[in-house]
């Protein structure tokens, strides 16, 4: 990869389903949380909603005519169920290696996630690349989560990089839309379970199988083009 920019570049990463293999755990836990509250929501529908902040996910799946007084109960049930997996989370293939390689090449890596506290700590333990992570932009730091552009803009502020010098990597259509709206080039990964065509339609400039596949193709990817610009 040839360095062409005199200013730093930023590698922005979603976490769940992008760096850590958690999407289907979230699906199962949300499905059970909805069931406990008396709602029948298909796992397919839940999967398509993964990546939204909790309150937006509940609204997306249950609609505006739901009993909103139970939203916190549903989110709390999901959190409790998901928490039982905290010590068993596994990174996706090549996740830590990809972050370390980007750091070695001078990229500032920022995680863009709705996770916080002990959940974020468990995710970072799974990735095992703390020295390569420059910061975290949480949904708690902004008024609107993905697919709004605010989380990505917050990450750019943390990295002190403009949108033209950044790449966002994620696994959901919400990730692609958030990055696009912030003016950042989005890269899609298939390891979260969302189809290639859906990621492309949502704005992905390229799509790779998983972090290991992206790592193997860094020198011919959008990362190389951004670095040269």
What's the arrangement of secondary structure elements?
Blueprint: E1 9-13, H1 23-36, H2 43-49, H3 54-62, H4 71-83, H5 95-104, E2 107-113, H6 117-127, E3 133-138, H7 150-159, E4 166-170, H8 173-181, E5 185-189, H9 196-201, E6 206-208, H10 211-216, H11 222-228
Helix pairs in contact: 1-2, 1-4, 3-4
Folded structure, characterized:
There is one protein chain. The chain is of the alpha/beta class and 229 residues long. The protein has 2 domains: 9-21 and 89-228, HAD superfamily/HAD-like (Rossmann fold), CATH 3.40.50; 23-84, DNA polymerase, domain 1 (Orthogonal Bundle), CATH 1.10.150. It has 11 helices and 6 strands. It has helices at 23-36, 43-49, 54-62, 71-83, 95-104, 117-127, 150-159, 173-181, 196-201, 211-216, 222-228, and strands spanning 9-13, 107-113, 133-138, 166-170, 185-189, 206-208. Strands 3-2-1-4-5-6 form a 6-stranded parallel sheet, sandwiched between helices. Helix 6 (117-127) links the parallel strand 2 (107-113) and strand 3. The longest helix has 14 residues, at 23-36. It is globular, with a radius of gyration of 17 Å. The model has no long low-confidence stretch (mean pLDDT 95). Its EC number is 3.-.-.-. Keywords: Hydrolase. InterPro entries: HAD-like_hydrolase_sf (IPR050155), HAD-like_sf (IPR036412), HAD_2 (IPR041492), HAD_sf (IPR023214), PGP-like_dom2 (IPR023198). GO terms for molecular function: hydrolase activity.
């Amino acid at each position: 990869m040839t360095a062409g920019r005199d200013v730093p570049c930023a590698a922005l990463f979603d976490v769940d389903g992008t760096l850590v293999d958690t999407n289907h755990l979230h699906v199962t836990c949300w499905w059970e949380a909805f069931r406990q509250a008396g709602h029948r929501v298909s796992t397919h529908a839940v999967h398509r909603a993964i990546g939204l902040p909790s309150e937006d996910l509940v609204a997306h799946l249950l609609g505006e005519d739901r009993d909103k007084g139970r939203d916190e109960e549903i989110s709390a049930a999901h959190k409790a169920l998901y928490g039982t997996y905290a010590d068993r989370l596994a990174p996706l293939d090549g996740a830590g290696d990809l972050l370390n390689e980007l750091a070695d090449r001078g990229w500032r890596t920022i995680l863009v996630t709705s996770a916080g506290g002990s959940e974020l700590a468990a995710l970072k333990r799974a990735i095992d690349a703390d020295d390569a992570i420059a910061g975290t932009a949480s949904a708690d730091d902004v008024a609107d989560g993905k697919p709004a552009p605010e989380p990505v803009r917050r990450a750019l502020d943390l990295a002190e990089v403009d949108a033209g010098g950044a790449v966002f990597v994620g696994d959901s259509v919400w990730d692609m839309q958030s990055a696009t709206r912030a003016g950042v080039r989005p890269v899609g990964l298939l390891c979260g379970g969302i189809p290639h065509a859906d990621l492309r339609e949502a704005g992905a400039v390229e799509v790779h199988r998983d972090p290991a596949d992206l790592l193997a193709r860094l020198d011919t990817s959008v990362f190389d083009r951004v670095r040269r610009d």
